[in-house]
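Dear Dr. V.,

Thank you for agreeing to look over these. As mentioned in my earlier message, I'm a first-year student in the group and I'm still getting used to reading structure tokens, so any feedback on how I've presented them would be very welcome. I ran two proteins. I've put each sequence directly above its structure. The first is here:
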Amino acid sequence: MSTAPATTRRTGAAWLVVGAAALLGAVALSFFVGARAISPTVTLDALRDFAGTPEHIIIRQIRLPRTLLGLAVGAALAVAGAVMQGLTRNPLASPEVLGVGNGAAFAVVLAIYLVGITSPYGYVWFAVAGAAVSAVVVYLLAGAGRGTATPIRLALSGAVLAAATFSWTSTLMALDERTLDEARFWIAGSLAGRPTGVLLAVLPFLVVGGLLTVLLVRPLDALAIGDDAAAALGFDPVRYRLLGALAVTLLAGGAVAAAGPLAFVGLAAPHLARQLVGPDHRILLPACALFGPTLLLLADVVGRIVLIPLELEVGIVTAFLGAPVLIMLARRARVVAS
């Protein structure tokens, strides 16, 4: 009986190696591929010894910041999605289940509309604040009336708030042309045109959120078998759901502030990781940190080449590719529920 867990861990470790190799490949493609292809030799030269040539400028000033941002944002969204799925015991959960993504986007657009914020450095504070307020509102809605904030009530409350904040965001953009011009590029979701300073601005939020997920590894495994079982094992469900909500708020809020709202990354990457490495969060969360940026960088590469010399924003690509994943997950969830 003890060989099965050991076999599962070995399988999970093997998939982590595969995920790391896939991530390295995605990083390489992110440097090499675009409207102007650049060879690996030139790329390495640009990273080691900047000479000011056009190819070196593309690598150092455009593709390097873009790739680093993709790594951070992809990992943050994927880990946040895995935490949400663990907290709610719902395979369809993602950061949007708490309205975090749409809440952060609404806060940024509201800041543009009311205050005239135009710098990406200013987005981060409003995005994280919007994500935090959204999480609090969802918990209050889910816990209102009789009963407690169960996974189903959380999911329903999050869906309601996400729909509301999306409509408010659209209304603000329709009311003011300046807000529309400023926000439409950001709200589509993109890794392009973001200076390295944007990543540095959101990095503290992502690091703290990532550290909090480390504290959630054992509680998430306990919550997977039910609230009563988790409480019997010494894990307070309410306390750890609040801690998980804080982690998701920091991770998703920072990611949205940096790259805009990106659909399906927080849904598809955890699902893929769970299918490959199993439900043990000790392996699942690191796998998500590998698969998330891999999927995001590959989507970004597709967006660069599908309409050369034009580009599709990565948020459009992830939404297009993620729709079949959502349909598949919905069908599986229906089968399990029946």
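The second protein is here, in the same arrangement:
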Amino acid sequence: MSRAHPLAWQTQSLLLDYPTEQLLSHLPLLHEVTAPSGPLQRAVRDPLAAFLQHAEHTPLGDLAADYVATFDHRKRCSPYLSYFTYGDTRRRGMALLRFQHAYRAAGFRLTDKELPDHVAVVLEFAAAEPEPGQRLLIEYRAGIELLRLGLHEADSPWARLLDSLTATLPRLTRRELDRITRLAASGPPEEEVGLEPFASGAASPGRKEATP
């Protein structure tokens, strides 16, 4: 793992979250991170820099509306990494617990802001705890790749962020490629179950639980 990967993951996390005024305040620092003289490798850096240019030249309201249209209304662009494998099924509930346990084991407090498998949440955790974070990213690599493909199919500017993310991960094996192909062809399972109990399980990396 490159020492610069946590910095890349933090940048990707910020840009894959819902865009607010806070994002605009981070743009000068993010430009420094993605500068040619910065610490990131070109394959990681260039897609980030391209998205930053898009974000900087798009009115915030338009950027936010595009985010909602992309991630909230396109199933193939779901930001929830376990969705692509399990859909809205009971098995996904167990996958969400897997994320929760990883966050708690590292001492991170859980919030009700987002489900724990949201790509921005997982990346923020990985930036703070690189080893367990990278394990989660690799474990749910199929979800990352299917999200990336969905964003490219939608011609979404956010696809560049997933290109940057995959550049920080090991090369896909033949077995992983075959699995991704099968999932892309079949789609996620469609059994509907309530996931409300897990909505309060998102990690807030960067705000650890207070110790006695």
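From my reading of the second output: Residues 90-105 form the longest helix (16 residues). The CA atoms of residues 111 and 172 lie 33 Å apart. Does that match how you would interpret it?

Kind regards,
E.
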